[in-house]
């Protein structure tokens, strides 16, 4: 849609160009959300794609995903065969309320920055123990875990002038098997609950999103049965974190979180 309050579009090409960010600037990665509804508080759009960040960087540390990397590029990436976890990228994208068309533009960074409970890339980043690199306007950086980055339903730690530069997924996590289960009230509807899982040597890492107002990361002993692990996961999430909206009631979300956790752990055990 046309954003009729916008007077200027900026195309920054270096970090110095980001030093002058101010209130009323709308940072844009893919623009699928930014352009989807009126943004009456914005005066300028800052198109981060002009920064030319490489989408995917593979090195000894793991995988660095530029915030401007689209879902499509992440899914189509060619990864080391030892990285057993990488099918989770495509499976995560399918938990997204969107046709495959939006994968061409929607970005990993944009999804994190919205902080929506149904932000599927938030769940993926949480279960993969990702670190989010934030550039501050004064030239300093922060490295955050997703559960600290997303503070509530559509809220994050980002302040004016903060830019998410990239998301690092560590090599060790990428070598481990992953699984995901999702439920929505209608077949292609917005997720009511999403559970991601990753099997480590001695434990299973579980990330719960969509059911809760912010992401939860819970680690359970891998010797627990799927039923016991599911009980453990649900018991570690405060009752008040499960919320009610048009996509599901809080008590239903809590129940299905247990069901989905059993499915995910069952898949990781098989
Ligand atoms: C049909 C449809 C279905 C959708 N389904 C879902 C869904 O199921 N779950 C969900 O979570 N979302 C959904 N969305 C919302 C949105 O499209 C996605 O979250 C998408 O991943 C956002 O990415 P983007 O690159 O387009 O973000 P943009 O629209 O570019 O930006 C989103 C927000 O993040 C900020 N931002 C972007 N990049 C940065 C950065 N690098 N640093 C700091 N701030 C930044 C922007 O200023 C803006 O506030 C849907 C949208 C549509 C149109």
Structural features:
single chain, about 270 residues, alpha+beta, Uridine Diphospho-n-acetylenolpyruvylglucosamine Reductase, domain 3, Enolase-like, domain 1, four-stranded antiparallel sheet, 8 helices, 14 strands, about 25% helix, binds flavin-adenine dinucleotide
Structural summary, described in words:
With 270 residues, the protein is of the alpha+beta class. The protein folds into 3 domains: 8-46; 55-172, Uridine Diphospho-n-acetylenolpyruvylglucosamine Reductase, domain 3 (2-Layer Sandwich), CATH 3.30.465.10; 175-269, Enolase-like, domain 1 (2-Layer Sandwich). Helices cover 24% and strands 26% of the residues. It is built from 8 helices and 14 strands. It has helices at residues 71-76, 87-93, 108-114, 120-127, 146-149, 171-174, 226-235, 250-269; strands spanning 8-10, 25-28, 44-47, 56-59, 62-66, 131-135, 141-144, 150-152, 155-156, 163-170, 178-184, 191-199, 203-209, 216-221. Strands 4-5-10-6-7 form a 5-stranded antiparallel beta sheet. It has a 4-stranded antiparallel beta sheet with strand order 11-12-13-14, sandwiched between helices. The protein is globular. The termini are far apart. The relative contact order is 0.13. The mean pLDDT is 96. Flavin-adenine dinucleotide (FAD) is lined by residues 26-34, 36, 48, 67, 96-98, 102, 105-107, 109-111, 113-114, 116, 118-120, 158, 163-164, 190.
